[in-house]
Design goal:
binds pyridoxal-5'-phosphate, 9 helices, 2 domains, Aspartate Aminotransferase, domain 2, about 350 residues, seven-stranded mixed beta sheet
Length: about 350
């Protein structure tokens, strides 16, 4: 068996131990005589899986009882719609625009609410988190929305905006559980599982319970209401059972490996090595502003599209895959998610140095 060094932005690498456990349990889950995939979601065996997964998530991220943990579908993209549908009371929401996904979220929200752009770094081609101050937010807004880590542009909020009493909503699709988080700072966190915590198909929403309203417009589809999912323990209809099971294994793996403090240490070590290699290179350069650099997605280029393509080809020969930049941005992007081993980053940095050495002066 040879596994590649998988730098894919998502769906992305999973811990080998998790895949091995899943393989072992694939045909006969813990003596039940069937696969988790084949189980009724109402069976006691499955109920134990989803309940344990929720408990483990609460333990891992220190989530108190006044927050709900919901297992949904539709990806982060459906949350671009669900958040404004469920959270709009006064009909105002403020957005910080840090890239493609934040833009998409604001555009979709505009259908349901007065979505105002408070600050944007579009004029900087999204190479940095824009500057803003607490006074810029409307104090009568329903929420402030951020995309906490910008998967495509390789930037990240290193301090959360001070939104006062206005709930902060964060798209954490590419940074969830990469480091400790202070849940109390957020009203709502959403993420697709497929980048940092599991396979595609599961969308995790962590929401302060008092934000879950019952008095939504009559025409709101049942499945797009948080109160539907809260009231049925994420089992109003069939949940993505297998994706929840695998995510549960990943969360357990994080707990067994020292929790989020240890995850942060591992992730910082990986990012430090790659950024150092970039900073010392004469050929490659990081595209994100130093102060805004992401811990999870590192974007870089040579400035010459042919050389970028040659490097991607050379790296692929060494088993380094998934480093092609987002289709509209180009260059390279290395995603250093929780499950990516340090050795993969070492292999990438070696390849970069060797490639640079082979260039004519
Ligand atoms: C990938 C990504 C999305 C889109 O996620 P889907 O689960 O495919 O809908 C949204 N936001 C961010 C930050 C992402 O990285």
């Amino acid at each position: 068996m040879t596994r590649i060094h998988n730098f894919s932005a998502g769906p992305a690498t999973l811990p080998l131990e998790v895949l091995e456990t899943a393989a072992q349990e694939l045909v006969d889950y813990q003596g039940n005589g069937l696969s988790v995939m084949e189980m009724s979601h109402r069976s006691s065996a499955y109920e134990a899986i989803i309940k344990q997964t929720e408990r483990d998530i609460r333990t891992l991220a220190n989530i108190p009882e006044d927050y709900a943990v919901l297992f949904l579908q539709g990806g982060a993209t459906l949350q671009f719609s669900m958040v404004p549908m469920n959270l709009s009371v006064k009909g105002k929401a403020d957005f910080l625009i840090t890239g493609h996904w934040a833009q998409k979220a604001a555009q979709e929200a505009q259908k349901y609410t007065d979505a105002r752009v408070i600050a944007s770094s579009e004029d900087l081609q999204f190479t940095a988190i824009p500057t803003f101050s607490a006074q810029d937010f409307r104090n009568d807004a329903d929420y402030v929305h951020i995309c906490e880590n910008n998967t495509i542009y390789g930037t990240q909020f290193h301090a959360l905006p001070d939104t006062g009493k206005v709930p902060l909503v964060a798209d954490q699709s590419s940074c969830i559980f990469s480091k400790p988080l202070d849940i109390a700072r957020y009203g709502l966190i959403y993420t697709g599982a497929q980048k940092n915590i599991g396979p595609a198909g599961l969308t995790l929403v962590i929401i302060r319970k008092d934000l879950i309203r019952k008095d939504l417009p009559e025409a709101t589809p049942l499945l797009l209401r948080y109160d539907t999912h809260l009231g049925s323990d994420s089992m109003y209809n069939t949940p993505p059972t297998y994706a929840i099971y695998i995510t549960g294994l990943v969360v357990r793996w994080l707990l067994d490996n020292g929790g989020l403090e240890a995850a942060r240490a591992r992730n910082e070590k990986k990012a430090a090595l790659l950024y150092k290699t970039l900073d010392e290179s004469r050929l490659f350069r990081g595209t994100a502003d130093r102060g805004s650099r992401s811990l999870m997605n590192v974007t870089f280029l040579t400035g010459d599209e042919q050389k970028d393509a040659d490097f991607i080809k050379m790296a692929a020969k060494r088993g380094i895959q998934g480093i092609k930049g987002y289709r509209t941005v180009g260059g390279m992007r290395a995603s250093l998610y929780n499950a990516l081993p340090y050795e993969a980053v070492e292999a990438l940095c070696e390849a970069m140095k060797d490639f640079e050495r082979e260039q004519p002066c």
